[in-house]
Amino acid sequence: MKPDDKNIQWVEEPKLGLAGRMYLPLFVQGLTTTVKHLVAPKVTVSYPDQEPEIGNPLIYRGVHRLNKDEDGRVKCVACFLCATACPAHCIDIIGVESPWPDREKYPESFVIDELRCIYCGMCEEACPVDAIELTSLYNLTGRSREEMIFDKEKLLSVYDMTKDQEAMKSRSLGGTVGG
């Protein structure tokens, strides 16, 4: 390719005035952005001194819980779909034959490693009976790795703790499973 090629369309450099040469429009544009951020409402909070507001808890993905049915039993039917769907492989279930006539199996052991979880919500999506849900609890802490491994009892206690503040999402989202 040569500079005098007729197929090349050359573009003239724009002529800048005095303000353009002094970067005045860019300077004013930058100051405008800074002033907008100074007067805009603040979105950052000083946690833990100030608790953040979660706008819609239904779309927040916090600590897991295992839901109970209307008889107070765990809703899980030990189908292993949540453990299969989990990309982080943080769910471990041991299913045994159910003593109740309405299901074949139930989880004898249900363990979630909260440190390994990436809170993607795939377990919640995969569950056919809406037994596992992510709550809006965000202040998950522990002093050891063992404290961050939630067993069935701990997951059911999260349900007891959050059932009044957060109804089961399946009902509010038009789910097919009651209880």
From TrEMBL:
Cleaved signal peptide residues: none
Keyword Electron transport: no
Reaction equation(s) it catalyzes: a quinone + NADH + 5 H(+)(in) = a quinol + NAD(+) + 4 H(+)(out)
EC number(s) reported in the record: 7.1.1.-
UniProt domain 4Fe-4S ferredoxin-type: residue ranges: 64-96, 108-137
Positions annotated to bind [4Fe-4S] cluster 1: 76, 79, 82, 127
Major subcellular location class: membrane
Gene Ontology molecular function: any one: iron ion binding
Cofactor(s) in the UniProt record: [4Fe-4S] cluster
TM annotation in the entry: none
Function: NDH-1 shuttles electrons from NADH, via FMN and iron-sulfur (Fe-S) centers, to quinones in the respiratory chain. The immediate electron acceptor for the enzyme in this species is believed to be ubiquinone. Couples the redox reaction to proton translocation (for every two electrons transferred, four hydrogen ions are translocated across the cytoplasmic membrane), and thus conserves the redox energy in a proton gradient.
NCBIfam families named among the record's database cross-references: NuoI
UniProt-recorded name of the protein: NADH-quinone oxidoreductase subunit I
The species this protein was found in: Lignipirellula cremea
Phylogenetic classification of the source organism: Bacteria, Pseudomonadati, Planctomycetota, Planctomycetia, Pirellulales
Name of the coding gene: nuoI
